[in-house]
Design a protein that fits this description.
There is one protein chain. By secondary structure, the protein is mainly α. It has one domain (8-38, 47-99). It has helices spanning 8-12, 15-38, 48-71, 76-99. α2 packs antiparallel against α3 and α2 packs parallel to α4. The model has no long low-confidence stretch (mean pLDDT 89).
């Protein structure tokens, strides 16, 4: 039996919807904590914060793909809204890395 039609709120309660958002926000917190503690100076070797950020950002990709394949066909409008929220969360995590050249 395939997935049923769900609203945005119902979809956002599903782990495949909220985990990528949580992972992006956790990655953002890791970057901001690193900047707060150590500043924005480039290091010769990537530190733990960089590795945590990379793992969190890459780790959410399979969850995003699963979510898209499962929910876009049955609830396209709600799923697109969740995917847009996930995109905003990912871009907010990417912004300090990009603009501060970390």
């Amino acid at each position: 039996m395939g997935p049923r039609h769900c609203s945005f709120r119902e979809l956002l309660r599903r782990p495949s919807a909220f985990l990528p958002v949580a992972m992006s926000l956790t990655a953002l917190v890791a970057v901001l904590a690193h900047i707060t503690l150590f500043g924005v100076a480039r290091e010769a070797d990537e530190g733990a914060a960089a590795h945590v950020w990379q793992l969190l950002m890459a780790g959410q990709l399979p969850v995003l793909v699963y979510f898209a394949f499962k929910w876009l066909p049955s609830s396209p409008k709600a799923a697109a809204g969740v995917l847009a929220l996930q995109l905003v969360a990912a871009l907010s995590s990417l912004a300090p890395v990009y603009f501060l050249n970390l």
